[in-house]
Design brief:
The protein has about 350 residues and is of the alpha+beta class. It has nine helices and eight strands. α1 runs antiparallel to α2 and α4 packs antiparallel against α5.
Length: about 350
């Protein structure tokens, strides 16, 4: 999830683990621990995009990393705060939980988190919370800011922090429960419309846990639809998105395409524009949130090849959608956000 959320979660966890002993030091170091797994981005300028796609949310987001790194991080903090009431073991315990909860939270998003590295590169993704969701973040942030102004041994301090953690965790689990319900709605609607499929996934749309996108995948195509838990009609209107895998058939066994297939889990469409191929990951949706027919894919990769060998895909480069950057783009984003809110409430 976004950096602010991970800082807030790490700070709240740090306070819960060690706040009674060391006060705001636990909050501060918890915030640091909550950001450490994402430092894998520092490697990105030195590797190719193919390698970067495998590295991000890789080993630094694994259970193994949390176990191995916690004693080292705890030792460093203990050396800095020699006179604090906490021991090396206490700081290591704080380090473990603040680093460990980061990838656990990331696993609830659609991106995919390699929790079991280095033993497996399987990307765990439960697809039940968007990467930015104020309803999850704000209680944590408000709780952390509040406790910083209370005495270290005040019982109210612990109660506020626990309440914030409980509220955010409840929201996270509520999203997962809604996901299970929505999954059954998508499956029922597909069966009623006699649409056969191999696999199905659903993920929530930006900033909420009420409006969901479902994707039913076959060998050659996908069926995409939207459903809000406030919809009165459960007969979902699906839009067919062909994979167009014939455009990359000759490159299926090449490293770049194999990496994109691994990342997208097979939910993709390939488009050709001005002689250039683009590999689009459907799981992240489009810039219009599937409300129109002309949105750009949020995760779109321009495929690179040799001029002499156009079927030899040598790499790819992600192309960012044009949300904001100009006044026109900002106005368009506001318009789409307004439409999203209307659609979220079942209208």
């Amino acid at each position: 999830m976004d950096t602010i959320t991970q800082i807030a979660l790490g700070a709240a966890v740090g306070e819960a683990v060690l706040g009674k002993k060391v006060g705001n030091k636990a909050v501060a170091w918890g915030a640091v621990g909550g950001t450490i797994p994402d430092l894998d981005v520092l490697i990105m300028p030195f590797v190719s995009e193919v390698q970067a796609l495998a590295i991000h949310r890789g080993f630094s987001h694994s259970i193994t990393f949390a176990i191995l790194f916690a004693p080292v991080f705890g030792w460093i903090i203990h050396k800095i705060h020699r006179n604090a009431a906490a021991t090396w073991k206490d700081w290591s315990w704080l380090a473990f939980w603040t680093v460990f909860t980061h990838p656990i939270l990331d696993s609830f998003t659609v991106y995919g988190t390699q929790l079991f590295q280095p033993f497996s590169d399987y990307p765990v993704a439960w697809n039940s919370i968007f990467i930015i969701d104020p309803a999850y973040t704000l209680p944590l942030l408000a709780g952390v800011i509040t406790v910083c102004f209370l005495r270290r041994n005040a019982s109210l301090r612990r109660k506020i922090n626990y309440a914030a953690l409980a509220l955010s965790t409840f929201y996270l689990l509520l999203g997962f429960a809604i996901k299970l319900h929505v999954q059954s709605v998508f499956e029922t609607s597909l069966n009623q419309q006699q649409i056969s499929y191999n696999h199905i996934m659903n993920a929530n749309t930006p900033f909420n846990i009420f409006l969901w996108m479902g994707i039913a995948e076959t060998e050659e195509t996908q069926w995409v639809g939207l459903y809000s838990i406030f919809d009165k009609d459960t007969n979902i209107q699906f839009q067919e998105i062909p994979k167009n895998k014939n455009l990359i058939a000759a490159a299926m066994n090449q490293p770049a395409i194999k990496r994109l297939m691994w990342f997208s889990r097979g939910y993709y469409t390939v488009k050709e524009h001005n002689g250039t191929l683009y590999f689009n990951d459907l799981r992240f949706g489009r810039s219009d949130i599937w409300l129109d027919n002309d949105g750009r894919y949020i995760f779109s990769f321009e495929l690179q090849s040799e001029h002499e060998q156009p079927n030899q895909i040598t790499g790819f480069q992600r192309k960012q959608p044009e949300f904001v950057g100009t006044d026109e783009g900002a106005n368009e984003f506001q318009r789409l956000l307004a439409r999203l809110l209307v659609r979220m409430w079942g209208k």
